[in-house]
Structures are given as C-alpha cells and as structure tokens.
Design brief:
This protein is an alpha+beta fold. The protein has 15 helices and 21 strands. A hairpin with a 5-residue loop joins strand 3 and strand 4. Helix 1 packs parallel to helix 6 and helix 12 crosses helix 15.
Length: 519
C-alpha cells in the first residue's frame, strides 16, 4: 500500500471585516490625526521637485485640519501635497498593502485606513494628483462594507487641471467627538510631533484655523551647583551613540531654565518625525529621571533621533526589543560625563522661588497647618500639660530596629571627640519620629576608645514621613537635617546646663504622630 501526499491552498488575504477591528486600536486622537499628516508630508517630499516646478522654489506644504462638533461630529483634513497618484491609488485603499518605498513616513500601508476607521464609520477621500487631469472621489461606509462583505467600491472621477494637487479627507459621524481639553492636547501634540518640519519652514499645519507652532524651552545657564563662584555654563550637550548594525541615536540633551513636571523629558524622533515623548508626555524612563517629583524629572529634556529601530504600527512608540536597557545605560553615562554632568546639576541645582510663588505656596501651607493645629493639637497639648516633664537623660543605646541605612561619622571640636551614628529605620515598631542615645566616652578595647557616642535615629515608617516625605533623597534629606539639628541641639543644650531638655523631643514626637501628620 502506498501513501500519496496531497497539497491544497489556503486563502490568507485579509477580508474587509478587518476594517471593523480598527476602531478598537489603541490610538490617541493626536496620533490618529498624525497618520493623515504623515501621508501629506510623504507626498510632499516624494514629489518635491515637481511641486517646486509648478509652485516655485518657496512652496511649502500646508495641512489644514478642521473639527466640527455639529451633526455627529466631522473632521476635515486637507493638504496641498501632490495628491494620490493613479499608480498608487488602488494600493492606498487596500489594507496593509505596503508602499514600494518604505523609507519615509508612510511605511505600513495601513495608516490612513486605520486612523479613518478609528475616528468614524463613514469617511471619504477626494484627491487630484499633480500631473494628472482627473479628480477622484471615493466613499467608505464601514458598517455596510463589513455587513455585506463588499470588496469593491465605486470610484467617481471628474476633470481637473494637470496642475491641481490636493487631498481632502472627510470623517463623518465620529465615534467620539474631541472636545475641550482634548482639542487643546491635539494641537499641542501635533505641533510637538512635527516640530522639526515646522521649525525648518517646510510644513505649515493649522487646526481650526490656528497655526501650530512649537517653542523650545530656554536652556539653563548657571555655574555648577557645587562651584557657584565659577563662570556660568550653558547646560546643553550633543549626544551620539552608535550601537552598530545601522542602529544609532543622536541629538542633544539639556536642562530647562525653568523646572517643569509636564514640559521636561526627551522627545524621540525617527526620520524627523516624533515617535515618542510629545508635548506633556515626554520620554522619561525612571532609570534616568527617577520619580515624578525628582529635580531631574523636572529639568532634563532633549531631542534624540533614533535610527535603525522599528516603530509600532500606530507610530507612537519605538520597538527597542532587548536594546532599551543598553541604550539607557549608555545614555545615562553620556549625560553625566564631565565637564558637563547634566544629571548631577539637575539634581543639585536650586533656584530661589519668585516672591509671588513663595507667597502663594506659603498661604496654602499656612491655611492647612493652621487648620490641623486648630482641630488636632489641643487634645495632645492638654495631655502633655497634665504630666510633669521628666528629668531623664537619653538612653546609652537605642533598642534594636530594622535599619534601612546608617552612617558613622566622627566630630572633633575643641578637646571633644564624638562618634555620631545617623540611622534611618523602616521598622514600624519604632514609634518615635526622632530617637537619640548618648553614651559618654569610655575606655575599652575598640577603635572608638575615648569617644563619646551619639546615635540619631529617624523613622521613615512614621506617619509624618508617610504624609510629607517619599523615597527620593531630596524628599528625605530636608527632614533628616531637621532631625539631626534637633538631636545635636538637645545634646549641646544639656551640656550647657539646660534641664529637662529631652521634653521638647518627647512632646514633638507626640505632636507629629497624633496631630501634625493628619491631612
């Protein structure tokens, strides 16, 4: 008995039902609008010489976007690029039919269709291609197309001039109508995404007749924060990283003159079009920028061109694969290289706030604190006044506790030699915000013979720290310095003959826990 092998074919051509998937893509409105702008820019560059021959050397691309909220909402995108050529027309409306030249902004063959369907079920395209004497018009009704499995649409044609060149896309009965703050964000992000083309004077983009512009933040000019007497420097440097095999990153990094939680961060470009980090959504990996309330997060910004890497099909993210960690390591090292260590300067540099800002912040802090004192403090003080202050000195040692970190230092002044142990604990069993021990100098057989030992312990697990501190050094350090100052003042006051000085610390710990840690 012999066996025979047979073969069959399987149709893997996408059906029109794929159009019904597009409304569920993870687009943001500005990236969806950007798909249409991308096509216009690509058409402009592909036919730039022909356009200049007809319109003159000073010709520049104009893209006009108009949004109307009436009658279910409508978006009209019109550009004066070269139009959709007859040789490209059928491919342009076929899903995932990639263009022959994928080196520009149109590379996946899906952008216009996916963005149009994401916005609306009904949309149309009217275009006249430069050098062709015909105007073409086509309409998509996605619901009807999908329900009836329609694979061919009627194309209407009308006479036109050989010198006409435009594309007009109309999206009707929008799934969701952008309004209010979303409209403002669309404008901000489009201006950010196409900032290089706008800056170079190649493209003019309008949204509801508002001309979109992008302004770079001013760069910090200042001395290094550790050497304030030195001449000021401009805190901006060029970045160039080469990973081989055609993958490289180049651009600049700088520090903002004015800190901003929304305006800092990197903008990542590919082929001069921003892919990631537009407007208030800057690319800020925690490995470099730390937490959202760090000073680096508020000052570091820049523009980086990423070449040799793929992007997501919605063109809102770089596809790093396993390379992002390597990129960030090299970038961090480059950012902090001498003689212009951007990260150190961002973390350490401080600007005295404006008087108006100080006054506003002070007023808010005062109102909140006054309310808490008024509502929470009286019962605590009443209990304190009923107890006689204690004469007790600090213990010789502190009880064992889980230590997050500690530092041992020596202080020498006059004929005194102190060993100071500063300890930060995360142990929830430690009830006091500030604890100290004070052990007099003793002669024994260790390296600290003859040294007085002072231990200062700050609890990071205290309710007061939970409310007002955080994990970043700049959040912990101010309170640690206050705690150290209180501890040292208590010891020196006791040395100076002040009685019952430890009562201040005991009462402070009670107030912080029972009253001043409240919202």
């Amino acid at each position: 008995m012999t066996s025979t092998t047979t073969s069959q074919t399987v149709n893997i051509r996408p059906e029109v039902s794929v159009l019904s998937v597009f409304p569920h893509l993870n687009y943001k409105p500005w990236y969806a609008v950007a798909e249409f702008v991308d096509n216009a820019i690509q058409s402009f560059f592909t036919h730039r010489l022909a356009l200049a021959k007809v319109e003159g050397e000073q010709f520049r691309l104009s893209v006009d976007v108009k949004l109307s909220v009436a009658d279910g909402g409508q978006i009209v995108i019109r550009d004066n690029a070269a139009g959709i050529q007859s040789s490209e027309y059928h491919r342009a409306f076929k899903t995932a039919a990639v263009p022959r030249d994928r080196s520009g902004l149109s590379e996946f063959g899906v952008g216009m269709k996916s963005a149009a369907c994401w916005f609306a079920n009904e949309w149309s395209v009217r275009t006249s291609a430069l050098g062709e004497d015909v105007e073409r018009f086509i309409t998509f009704d996605v619901t009807t197309i999908v329900e009836n499995s329609i694979e061919e649409l009627t194309l209407k044609e009308a006479p036109a001039s050989f010198n006409d060149h435009f594309t007009e896309i109309i999206l009707r009965n929008l799934h969701s109508i952008p309004q209010g703050r979303t409209v403002s964000k669309i404008k901000e992000h489009l201006a950010s995404i196409y900032r290089i083309f706008i800056r170079d004077g190649l493209v003019q983009i309008k949204f509801n007749d508002d001309l979109l512009t992008h302004t770079q933040p001013n760069v910090l000019t200042a001395s290094f924060y550790k050497n304030e007497g030195e001449p000021p420097q401009v805190w901006r440097k060029e970045i160039a990283l080469d990973f081989g095999e055609g993958q490289h990153v180049y651009g600049f990094a700088a520090l903002r003159e004015t800190a901003s939680t929304s305006g800092a961060g990197f903008a990542l470009f590919r082929r001069n079009r921003l892919i990631q980090g537009s407007a208030d959504d800057g690319y800020r990996p925690e490995y470099i920028f730390k937490k959202a309330n760090s000073f680096i997060y508020q000052r570091l910004f820049g523009e980086l061109h990423v070449e040799g890497f793929d992007v997501s099909h919605t063109k809102d993210g770089i596809r790093w694969a396993e390379h992002e960690d390597i990129f960030l390591e090299f970038l961090k090292e480059k950012l902090n290289e001498e003689p212009l260590p951007l990260l150190d300067q961002a973390a350490g540099y401080r600007v005295r706030p404006k008087q108006t800002d100080l006054k506003k912040g002070a007023q808010t802090a005062l109102n909140t604190t006054a309310r808490v004192i008024e509502e929470e403090v009286p019962p605590v003080i009443e209990g304190q006044l009923q107890n006689e202050p204690e004469e007790n000195s600090p213990p010789l040692t502190l009880p064992q506790a889980a230590v997050a970190t500690e530092r041992v230092i020596s202080i020498d002044f006059a004929d005194n030699h102190w060993k100071v142990v500063i300890e930060l604990t995360t142990d929830p069993a430690v009830g006091d915000w500030l604890s100290i021990s004070d052990s007099p100098a003793v002669q024994n057989n260790n390296e600290h013979d003859g040294m007085r030992q002072l231990e200062i312990r700050l609890s990071l697990a205290h309710p007061f720290m939970d409310r007002f501190a955080g994990p970043e050094p700049e959040q912990i350090e101010p309170l640690l310095r206050v705690a150290a100052g209180l501890a040292l003042s208590e010891v020196t006051a006791r040395e100076g003959g002040v009685r019952r000085v430890g009562t201040v610390r005991r009462y402070l710990n009670e107030l912080l826990r029972e009253a001043l840690s409240k919202p």
